[in-house]
From TrEMBL:
<keyword id="KW-1015">Disulfide bond</keyword>
<dbReference type="GO" id="GO:0004252">
    <property type="term" value="F:serine-type endopeptidase activity"/>
</dbReference>
<dbReference type="InterPro" id="IPR009003">
    <property type="entry name" value="Peptidase_S1_PA"/>
</dbReference>
<dbReference type="InterPro" id="IPR043504">
    <property type="entry name" value="Peptidase_S1_PA_chymotrypsin"/>
</dbReference>
<dbReference type="InterPro" id="IPR004236">
    <property type="entry name" value="Pept_S1_alpha_lytic"/>
</dbReference>
<keyword id="KW-0645">Protease</keyword>
<feature type="signal peptide">
    <location>
        <begin position="1"/>
        <end position="22"/>
    </location>
</feature>
<dbReference type="GO" id="GO:0005576">
    <property type="term" value="C:extracellular region"/>
</dbReference>
<comment type="similarity">
    <text>Belongs to the peptidase S1 family.</text>
</comment>
<protein>
    <submittedName>
        <fullName>Streptogrisin C like protein</fullName>
        <ecNumber>3.4.21.-</ecNumber>
    </submittedName>
</protein>
<dbReference type="Pfam" id="PF02983">
    <property type="entry name" value="Pro_Al_protease"/>
</dbReference>
<dbReference type="InterPro" id="IPR035070">
    <property type="entry name" value="Streptogrisin_prodomain"/>
</dbReference>
<keyword id="KW-0865">Zymogen</keyword>
<dbReference type="GO" id="GO:0006508">
    <property type="term" value="P:proteolysis"/>
</dbReference>
<feature type="domain" description="Peptidase S1A alpha-lytic prodomain">
    <location>
        <begin position="126"/>
        <end position="181"/>
    </location>
</feature>
<dbReference type="InterPro" id="IPR001316">
    <property type="entry name" value="Pept_S1A_streptogrisin"/>
</dbReference>
<feature type="disulfide bond">
    <location>
        <begin position="331"/>
        <end position="361"/>
    </location>
</feature>
Length: 386
């Protein structure tokens, strides 16, 4: 296997098992060559991937490399086992105590064949096909909000139905009774919280401060940057869907025209700028030269382009002057404030956030933006890139 394939398999296996593994991650013995991994396999992972595994799974660097190599091998082995077992396959998982792949089997006569492939086995009652059939039957039911979800759990050979213990009601009990009548594999687990939808923070999309609307500039770790005149420090925001989004943690206007909003756990920072419904991927923040082509995204007029005309401009707004702005001949209108400016190859280089200007997108106009790098520096923020 080449290194790229090993990394991809490692990531896939880690994502597939990460929730369970994060609860209890043992040190895996024999780090030099875990279950067939070679020294090359354990040293070829990108530094950023290793740092994430170390941080989120509580491993040191050596354990992280071993874990990723082992997970890659387990992903390959599971595919082999599936083809050997057919309908007697009952799921596979990495055992928390040994770090080794364990395979559920419904037919004792097939155990030796699985072990010959280097995996441990567990004899169970239900095949994966049967468990998936039970889950599909539950998918056809209408569930109350107090039932938070259901899933196939390979390790316990059950279909787990989760119910919020704090909101459990008669409707939840009725659903549980129906679920259990579907099949004996159903198991009920009470949980303390209910999941909520997660939303993406994307440059150019609308957000609201009370009844006022502005546009997101760029996603940063923990939130996004935007224009300072959009809101004062402490002001609450909602997203384009009017779902609670975050709070202004810093804002400067006039003098400057920049701010940043810390978002809540419903929102995920993405390295994207909205280009008429598709995404431009933000790859960096190298500043464009005067005369360069530049484009902006905003929630009122969408994607508009022009050229950089001047830097370090001072604009005297009615509220006071703002210095250090970049002047362009791209148009903008109210509501576009705070939105993204991008330039460079594929428009992947973040430039700044919309401040203000004159004219409109019918007759043309002049628009100024607050350069991004100053905002990142002042607040100590890290741009989200892809």
């Amino acid at each position: 296997m080449n290194r790229t394939s090993a990394v991809r398999l490692a990531v896939a296996a880690l994502l597939a098992t990460g929730t369970a593994s994060a609860l209890s991650v043992p040190a895996i013995a024999d780090p030099a060559a875990p279950y067939g991994a070679t020294a090359a396999n354990t040293e070829s992972y990108p530094a950023e991937l290793l740092r994430a595994v170390e941080r989120d799974l509580g491993l040191n660097a050596e354990e992280a490399r071993v874990r990723l190599a082992n997970d890659a091998r387990s992903g390959e082995r599971e595919a082999q086992v599936r083809s050997v077992l057919g309908d007697t396959f009952a799921g596979a998982w990495i055992d928390g105590s040994t770090g080794k792949l364990t395979v559920g089997v419904t037919d004792s006569a097939r155990v030796d064949a699985v072990r010959a492939l280097g995996a441990d086995t567990r004899l169970v009652t239900f095949s994966q096909r049967q468990l998936n059939g039970t889950k599909a039957a539950l998918d056809a039911l209408s569930a109350p909000v107090s039932v938070t979800g259901w899933r196939v759990d390979d390790a316990s050979n059950t279909v787990v139905v989760e119910v919020n213990r704090h909101t459990r009601d008669a409707a939840a009990d009725a659903f549980v009774a129906t679920a259990k009548s579907v099949g004996t594999a159903v198991r009920v687990v009470e949980v303390d919280q209910s999941p909520t939808p997660l939303y993406d923070t994307r440059g150019g999309d609308a957000y609201y401060i009370g009844s006022s609307r502005c546009s997101i500039g760029f996603a940063v770790t923990g939130g996004f940057v935007t224009a300072g005149h959009c809101g004062r420090t402490g002001a609450a925001t909602t997203g384009s869907n009017r779902v609670s989004q975050g709070t202004f943690r810093g804002s400067s206007f006039p003098g400057n025209d920049y701010a940043w909003v810390a978002t809540n756990s419903n929102w995920t920072s993405r390295p994207w700028v909205n280009r008429s419904g598709s995404n431009v991927i933000v790859k960096g923040n190298s500043e464009a030269a005067v005369g360069a082509q530049i484009c902006r995204s905003g929630s009122t007029t969408g994607w508009r382009c022009g050229t950089v005309q001047a830097k370090n401009s001072t604009v005297n707004y009615p509220q006071g002057s703002v210095s250090g702005l970049t002047r362009t001949n791209a148009c903008a209108e109210p509501g576009d404030s705070g939105g993204s400016w991008v330039a460079g190859t594929g428009f992947g280089q973040a430039q700044g956030v919309t401040s203000g200007g004159s004219g409109n997108c019918s007759s043309g106009g002049t628009t100024y933006f607050q350069p991004l790098n100053e905002i990142l520096s002042v607040y100590g923020l890290r741009l989200t890139t892809g």
